[in-house]
Amino acid sequence: MVMDNLDKQMHKSEGEYSSINLLKADHLENSSTKSSNAKLESVKAKLAEITEIKLKLVIENKKMKQAIDLVNCRAIDCQPELRAMDIKTLEEEHNALLSDKAGETEYLKSLREQVEKLKGISLVAKCSCGEEYRVQTDLSA
Q1: Which of 13, 41, 87, 136 shows the smallest number of beta carbons within 10 Å?
Q2: Residue 21 covered by a domain
Q3: Ranges of the chain with pLDDT below 50
């Protein structure tokens, strides 16, 4: 009988022990499942972000390729002499043209000043018959 009681207690404590272990194991599994789900969601969010960035890069690359193609087409349309020239020579030509433009602007300014001076010319001319005529420049046309 004492053995029976010990067996019953042992069996009862084994059942309780195994139940406690199962509860702890379930709790650990739920905790690890929640942790895994959280990590999975985080990874999915990062993947979506990376996919979006990749899409933006693809679009930007296409735009760059189109811009490069446009520049290449324009370069083909340039005169062969210009394409054969190096950058330094082209810069010198550009500076010379800018200098010419500045010189032309200065020349036009001086011409305008001369025209203004000519507009102010007015003379009185006497004819042999005694009549006086006023002679002036009319540059309005």
Answers
A1: 87
A2: yes
A3: 2, 13-15
